[in-house]
């Protein structure tokens, strides 16, 4: 029998140390997706992940996938692509377009975890200045991008998409450069996969991740980095 913590109207979460091992990382259910609750969750290394017709489920997996910025892998072919591509890259120009596109990405399992409820919650988080997007454009058409949450001096990546070759890698390249400007040390990738591993994502114990996150949350992120604009090549 699974015993799971049920959230109430308060913003209290149980310690991630109480997360289940099966399914791995499941910590709690219930609550809501308000701006305050989401921020409180991300500051503690917890994030929501659930499908349609499921209650809100909260997770803190062990091990945790992170991308140390110094570990970001840029191949010669990608560097050449960055120099020569005609694709444009912007920040916070079309957050809604990015999250809607990410919700349409085909997953290995049926359906999507980016439900309408999630979309509305993260758009509100964006309006409040806590969620941001990188967009890639081809002649005015949105062809790639990513979005995530900023609970301090760390970017908690949520999802990415691409319709054009290398578009998501290009978005990640510009995101890393942007974060380096603020002295950020890593991106929270939540869970490692083959694509993220190819970019330099590694797995670390949850306890180590939480220590890193605790220090990052203490440091403010320069909000001017996220002013809507086109990004120039570094």
TrEMBL record:
EC number: 2.3.2.6
Catalytic activity from the UniProt record: N-terminal L-arginyl-[protein] + L-leucyl-tRNA(Leu) = N-terminal L-leucyl-L-arginyl-[protein] + tRNA(Leu) + H(+); N-terminal L-lysyl-[protein] + L-leucyl-tRNA(Leu) = N-terminal L-leucyl-L-lysyl-[protein] + tRNA(Leu) + H(+); L-phenylalanyl-tRNA(Phe) + an N-terminal L-alpha-aminoacyl-[protein] = an N-terminal L-phenylalanyl-L-alpha-aminoacyl-[protein] + tRNA(Phe)
Subcellular location as annotated: Cytoplasm
Domain of life: Bacteria
UniProt GO cellular component terms: cytoplasm
Swiss-Prot/TrEMBL keywords: Acyltransferase, Cytoplasm, Transferase
SUPFAM superfamilies documented for this protein: Acyl-CoA N-acyltransferases (Nat)
Keyword Metal-binding: no
Any Pfam family: Leu_Phe_trans
InterPro entries (UniProt xref): Acyl_CoA_acyltransferase, Leu/Phe-tRNA_Trfase, Leu/Phe-tRNA_Trfase_C, Leu/Phe-tRNA_Trfase_N
UniProt record, GO biological process: protein catabolic process
EC class of the enzyme, as a word: transferase
Amino-acid biosynthesis among keywords: no
GO MF annotations in UniProt: leucyl-tRNA--protein transferase activity
Function: Functions in the N-end rule pathway of protein degradation where it conjugates Leu, Phe and, less efficiently, Met from aminoacyl-tRNAs to the N-termini of proteins containing an N-terminal arginine or lysine.
HAMAP family documented for this protein: Leu_Phe_trans
Family as reported in the entry's similarity comment: Belongs to the L/F-transferase family.
Name listed for the protein in its UniProt record: Leucyl/phenylalanyl-tRNA--protein transferase
Organism of this sequence: Paraglaciecola mesophila KMM 241
Biological classification of the source: Bacteria, Pseudomonadati, Pseudomonadota, Gammaproteobacteria, Alteromonadales
Name of the gene this protein is made from: aat
